[in-house]
Each structure stands twice: as C-alpha cells, then as structure tokens.
Hints:
The chain is α/β, with parallel strands linked by helices. The protein is 40% helix and 13% strand. The chain is built from 18 helices and 11 strands. Strands 3-2-1-4-5-6 form a 6-stranded parallel beta sheet, with helices on both faces. A hairpin with a 3-residue loop joins strand 10 (338-343) and strand 11. Helix 6 runs parallel beside helix 9 (202-209).
Amino acid sequence: MEGPLAGIRVLEVANWLAAPAGCALLADAGADVVKVETPDGEPYRGYRGGAGVELPYNPFFELDNRGKRAITLNLENPAARDVIYRLIDKSDVFVTNLLAKRRERYGLTYEDLKVHRPDLIFVSVTGYGSWGPDRDRAGYDYAAFWARSGIMGLLGEPESPPPPQRPGMGDHTTALAVAGAVSLALFNRERTGNGEQIDVSLNNTGMWVLAIDVQTALTTGREPERLSRRDVPNPIWNSYQTGDGRWIQLVMLVADVYWPKVCRAIGRPDLEKDPHFESMAKRMEYREELIALLDETFAERTLAEWTAALDGEGCIWAPAQTIGETIEHPQTIAREAFAEIDHPTHGLIRLVDSPVKFAAERVGARGAAPELGQHTEEVLLEAGYSWEEIAQLRDSGVL
C-alpha cells in the first residue's frame, strides 16, 4: 500500500479513542494496522453518544478505526500471549492503552515484547503515564486532559462554572502526539537499528496545549487567573457579539499596528487619536471603557456587514462558526478536509480526513473500519498459523 509508512506493521491493543485514533493516522499514512479486540468487541463499537440524533451506524468508530484490519483475542486466556508474541515477530510498532498493571498481568510490557522483537517500537497511551503515583489511575480525556491539566479551570467567565470540553478533544490531540512519536522512533530505528519505548499521556498533552499558562506559572510562581472578556488587557484581542446574535473573535496581537485599521472598520476613525485609546498602554488602562464601546458598536450591525468591514481593512479576526458552516466553507472544501469512503454496509460515507496534507505521498483515510474479528484468520495465517491451529485456538476460547 502506498504512503510514507507503507510496509510498516502496527499491532494495536487498545480501545476507545486516543491510541486507536493515533493508529488511524498511521493507517492514513499507509501502515498496516492490526487491531486486537476482545471477542465481545471493544466498548467504542457500541457508542452512540455525543450526537443528539439517531444514527444509522457508529460514525465515531469509523472515524478512529478507518483503514485497519481487526482480529479478536481473549487476553484473559493465558494462551493468548503466545499469539501476541507471534504477531509481534512480524510487527514494527505495538500501541496499547492498557494501564501498567494490566500490561504486566497479560505479559505485554516492553520487556516482555522486545524479547520477541528487539527493535520493536512500543507505545503506551494512558491518562497519566506509566510511572508515578497515578500510573494505574483510569482517565478519559475529560478527566486527565481537560480537568487535571488545568485547562478546564482556566476557561469561562470568572463568575461562571468552568465549561466542559467537547467529545474527543484531548484524545484527538493526543493522537497527533502518538503518530508523531511513532514516526520519530521509526526514523531513529532506520538510522540506528534500535527500538524504543514511548510513553504518551493525556495529562501531559493537556499541559502542552496549555503550555503558555503553565510556563508562566513555572517562571513567575503565580497561579494564572480566569480572565473575563470585559477585562482583557488588549480590547482588540477579544470576542464581541454582533447585532444578529453571532460572535466574532478579534485577534490583533500587534495592537498599535492594527488599531487604525479597527477604527476605520468600525467607522470611528476619530478613536485612533483619542487620548484614552491612542496607544496600547492607554487602551489597556481604559480597557473597560473601550470594551463597552466596542460591545455597543458591534451590536449595531450583522455578521455579514462586519465581515465586509473587517476584511475590507485587513483586520485579523474570525467568526465563531457553526459546525455546519465549517463543513461547507469554501476553504474547508478546497483543503479536502473530508474523505469519501465506499463502505461495504453503509454505502458512501464521509469522514474527517487526516489534518496532514502531503504533496507527493498519499496520506488520508483509505477504507472503512473493520468488522469485529473480520481479519482474524487472515492475520494468523500471515503469522504462520495453520488452519488446524487456528481451529484449536478458537475451540480453546483464545479467539
């Protein structure tokens, strides 16, 4: 299969989101990803939440497991580890989100597996990492990424409850780290011949996303505070509501350069030299007054009117779009952000494609998610099992 990772075999023993989504990105790049599930199937197959509508199939599982092959294996059966070890012989990368204590119980630690493949790249993806007091603490991204990292506590107006994240935000962010780390390790193995043990956590990813605030606290020893939009230091780096109830985000970081443009865009050139607003220092001093003025001004016209005015002056800004607007935006379409997959059961479906665009190599969704156990016999035959051995494994409850 073409792609920058063509010829690379990835064995995935993981469920739910972050690790499987990372492996989906590897499959997008041409890797042969074999997903190992329990005979009952992983819980994500049955997930139907988050959409608020009746769904004809599970698009979320399709999204994060597209282009993979799937086998079933009962890890609670001691004989299953021998199957894993034979599969590891033919795998370049092993990715798991099993907590450390479960990896030890199933014989799936890095030390266990590298005996069978010394140059193996081993990746664990957990809530809090594989060492430390929370190494065996379960944590979805709402907990480890959003709440424990500090993101949740810093967002929202100071007097309001902190907001929840949207489904999978931390998982899909962490998936990018998984794909990047595997690529780095493969490149290093190409140069040195050495395998690697990689540890990725949702919590560390959250701290990286919040790194500006975390770094400020590291440097100053002070706790960052939730900031009201009515009190931001730079009023033209702020959100405002338009007359038709839409929100826009101004992002003029180099404030003194863009202040004249904003004044012209809002039809108030007189404000440019106003003694209260003529410099960044003055606008910061009188920020509450200026934000109130801009609130009143932006409420006078519609989003469409402000789009023309702000773009006309070259301001840096964006509307708070709906998802529907994002999907249909000409820039989204031009970037080919979605892949069309001919699904064997559901017909033509669209999936969010890889965010990475290559000019020469093919990187993107390549096929539907596998059915439960769809490739069990195929993969085991490739690993050297005979049909008789496969039947014995099935009869003994390993498969």
